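Methods — Computational structure assignment.
A single polypeptide chain was analysed. Its primary sequence is given first, followed by the predicted tertiary structure written as structure tokens.
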Amino acid sequence: MDRGLDRVLICGVDEAGRGPLAGPVYAAAVILDRGRRINGLADSKVLTPERRDVLAGRIKERAIAWSVASASVEEIDRINIFHASMLAMRRAVQALGVRPEEAWVDGNYCPDLGCKAKAFVDGDALHPVISAASILAKTERDAEMCVLSARYPQYGFDRHKGYATAEHLDALGRLGPCEAHRRSFYAVGVFFQKDLFANSWGAMAEPLRIRSYRMYCDAVKLAAGAGLAGERGGSRLEAARARVARFKAHEKRLRLRYTDVLSCPEAATHVDLFEQVLGQTRTELTAAARRKRAISLD
């Protein structure tokens, strides 16, 4: 750190919980005391829960100021997860007992924090002050998910913290969502498409209910581009053709994985959704490859 920065009051800012299907998104702001060193600060994702808890205690004890804030599930669904994350960050900085001169934010975008701000990609792994904020946001959110787990024990929030793990998706496929789930996320929002999904889902036997739901989620995930990115290099036409080929390979694997659902008459409504999602994506990718080919021939 530059000697000039030693005299600047910097707060680190980071969020936790943008990706999960359930629970609030949290953010923390921390101003470290350079005279009270905290060893072991790192990106919260690479630390064990036990180590995070120890470090969180030391941060709260030794920091000049710290605060944690959140944005609710209702706010996430109303303004979207990105803006809700920015809102939680603003709340965290505003709640500090000491006004920072500058904020260092993890990521590639800075919300309006009322002070000078800089964004750092992978900042939680590069700068201890951001690492400290990452640890506080993560530990506070994990604690909240354990509270939600006690309220909704059938979902296992204490184990997966709301992320889209196999356990969580199976629970959603078996039970449907609860009030802690984010309706604006596709894996949850589908249950509120009554005519398209939920009515037929509720009438299925449990094993088929889970399998058909997982099939739909995997189709949407593939349509969103999961697994379609390839190595850089080559022409744009070659890249477009490669995306089509990768899509078709993934689609083939999905069809083999869910042969039981695809052949089941009771799942016909969900199969139609599956075909619609994949068919639209296939058409878009093929059209993009054709456009690239036309451009290459000009």
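Note: The domain at 3-149 is CATH 3.30.420.10 (Nucleotidyltransferase; domain 5).
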